[in-house]
Amino acid sequence: MPRSFDAVVIGAGPGGYVAAIRLAQLGKKTAIVERWPTLGGVCLNWGCIPSKAVIHAGELRSEIARAAAYGIGTGGMAPLDLAKLKAWKQGIVSKLTGGISTLMKANGIEVVRGTARLLGPTRVHVEPPPGSGTRGGSGGAGIASPDDNEIDAKNVILATGARPIELPFLKGQRIWTSKEALDLDEIPRRLAIIGGGVIGLELGCAFLKLGTEELTIVEMLPDLLPGTDPDLVRPVRRALKERKGVAILLETKAAGYEEKGAEARLKVDGKEGPKEIVCDRVLVAIGFRPNSEDLGLADAGVALDKRGHVIVDQRCRTNVPSIYAIGDLTGAPYLAHRASKQAMVAAEVIAGEPSAFDVQAMPAAIFCDPEIGTVGMTEAQAKEKGRELSIGTFPFSVLGRAIAQDQTDGLVKVVADKASGLLLGVGIVGPRASDLIAEAALAIEMGALAEDLALTVHAHPTFPEALLEATEDALGHAIHIAKKKR
Question: 397 in helix, strand or coil?
């Protein structure tokens, strides 16, 4: 007979494992099913965490090269021991994924190793990993025999995430997705990236700092980072163009591919006509598709949108009362912290708590160079809604702390409703943008006015002062920049 649980979570990424822990905290008997050898999903194993470790290493190497200007060292790029860097990166991943296993045990959550498929609204079949010998795994007893490969659950949370989109004609030994790039088996001298979005720019900037000499970015749309405020993209594009060996091909698409010996030959076609890019590796970073296939969604009657995302309401419920879905499986924005927030909501709804995904401010961070942080509406989005706006900006080039640390690229941009003063959105491009955006997210979530931010005293000299100054600019009384003509 199948074993029974109050809830089963399918997928142990930043949505799934958070949902399982919250369910256990709320007194629910919980199991979590994961097909990969380690918990944590793409984010901890091949995405957010390892990429930030690699980006940090690149930034450190770049800082060392610049330190001679401050009287430290002799200048030049520090040597890179790729094997040590890879081991250090993997040590971080192992520490965090191991920590999740510990949390599963501490919360009494049963970890079931294998691939899950819905047999109906409340029944899950788990196929064990090939050659596993047993049907269990670390963190819990798991499924122990072939006769015990089904689980009954009053509720099921789907948290299977998404995977990189592939181009069918791009097949070969020298093609990378972000996963292969982050394996760190090599730093290619010549790297071509298809896709000028978040993943492409983050990894492109990192590899440049780690030793890539020639970088070509191929983007089908008119600008990098589609959907991002052009005022924030501009400093990133400028910084890339100023680097030797970087080419940015906009309004250009990949048209063909072949490998000749140790070389990759990428054919592209754009506004400048057909072109062949000769490189060592090609990174495909054109977006993600949901992992909604082979889950038994049709058998359970779960509705999908036309792109294969599971449709949910504000309480993360699907059209089937016992089945919930969270994270990338439910569509954009593909953000780990969105998945974690939805996980809390789904768990609390299952436990009968009055919870809903009614987030007013969903921050996002792009770890390119310089960094970008955004929250709320862009200027264009606010105008589309018919708002009359007060816009304020403040460049890091005149911020004391930024000048002292020689990090002066970028700006802060504040968007407020002119009539009410309500803070609508904030965009930051520059040093520590991923951290600075948190204050703006809190302000928007609380329904703050621009004046509330301006009245808040900020410590000096700090980077957050740039947010204060941009807000004061929106209100017409910035102190450290000349008054604009309005």
Answer: helix
What backbone phi and psi angles, to 5 degrees, belong to 152? -95, 140
Contact 411, 231 (CB under 8 A): yes
Q: What pLDDT is recorded for position 1?
A: 66
pLDDT for 139 beyond 60? no
Contacts of 71 (CB under 8 A, 6+ apart): none
Q: pLDDT-based confidence at 10, cuts 50/70/90?
A: very high
CATH homologous superfamily for 364-474? Answer: FAD/NAD-linked reductase, C-terminal dimerisation domain (3.30.390.30)
Tokens 């991943």 belong to residue: 93
Q: Rounded to whole angstroms, how far apart are CA atoms 277 and 273?
A: 13
Q: What pLDDT score was predicted for residue 261?
A: 86
Q: What is the DSSP string of 419-451?
A: TT-BEEEEEEESTTHHHHHHHHHHHHHTT-BHH
CA distance 485 to 470: 15
Distances (CA, A) of 439 to 380, 392, 443: 22, 16, 6
Confirm if 346 and 321 have CB atoms less than 8 A apart. Answer: no
Active-site entry in 309, 460, 477, 480 = 460
Per the annotation, the verdict on 460 as an active-site residue is yes
Average pLDDT over residues 224-240: 97
Same fold for the pair 3-46+88-163+289-350 and 175-286: yes
Q: Token digits for 127?
A: 């196929």
| E strand residue ranges, 72-120 | 110-113, 115-120
The pTM of this model reads 0.93
CA pair distance 476, 470, nearest whole angstrom: 10
Distance between CA 342 and CA 327 in Å, rounded? 7
Residues 178 and 46: beta-carbon distance below 8 Å: yes
